[in-house]
Design brief:
By secondary structure, the chain is of the alpha+beta class. The chain is built from two helices and eleven strands; from the N terminus they run H-E-E-E-E-E-E-E-E-E-E-E-H.
Length: about 210
């Protein structure tokens, strides 16, 4: 039954994608795309946000993360996650990559909006859990000291979010807290978890 519902959800996602705007670019597992520029999110409400500083041996900067609901341009109808990364002017190295985790199992559309240093590509690993924005130049990363990315946009079918980790990488790396989609248990799994908790509680009382 689980595989049937999973396949049905995937088909529905493809149908919704087909009916949405032609600019939508799905980022599927084991793929790499050139990011399109799209004016998004549209008509959305801000759910939560964070602005966090990070620092490694060779660079420092700021990551701004936001979660949006009601984005009418989202082809999957779920939450939209946006990220913007800056490299401080005092950094000795450029930034090569921004890697985000916890995207496994979610339909994901990638784009950017606004001015800034645009990633050369967006890459999703075969497992689908990691999404990486690459700032790869010919000889070094393109997000040099004193520069900022545009708004990096990931539209999903997720109805929930969680605190997750992002990795900022060059010759050194640093982790910084951010937001990502959250998978909720299927109804059957949730019932099993609740039943298990009740049984465990009864055993402790006895």
């Amino acid at each position: 039954m689980k595989s049937t519902w999973t396949n049905f959800g995937a088909v529905c996602g493809v149908i919704v994608f087909g009916l949405s705007g032609a600019q939508a670019v799905p980022l599927v597992p084991a793929s790499s795309i050139v990011l399109p520029s799209e004016a998004e999110p549209v008509g959305a409400s801000l759910v939560t946000s964070s602005v966090l500083n990070f620092s490694s041996f060779t660079f420092s900067g700021t990551l701004t993360s936001k979660v949006w609901s009601g984005d009418t341009s989202n082809p999957f109808g779920g939450l939209t996650f946006t990220y913007q990364i800056s490299n401080n002017a005092v950094s000795t190295d450029p930034i090569d990559r921004l890697t985000l985790s916890s995207y496994a199992g979610f339909l994901t559309d990638a784009s950017y909006f606004g001015a800034g240093i645009v990633p050369t590509s967006a890459v999703r690993n075969p497992a689908g859990n990691q999404v990486t924005f690459d700032f790869a130049g010919q000889f070094q990363g393109t997000l040099v000291a004193g520069s900022t990315s545009p708004l990096l946009i990931l539209q999903t079918d997720s109805a929930n979010f969680q605190v997750s980790n992002a990795a900022v990488i060059n010759s050194s790396s640093v982790n910084v807290a951010t937001f990502a989609p959250l998978a909720v248990p299927e109804p059957t799994a949730a019932v099993i978890l609740v039943a298990g908790a009740i049984i465990f509680g009864l055993r402790r009382k006895s």
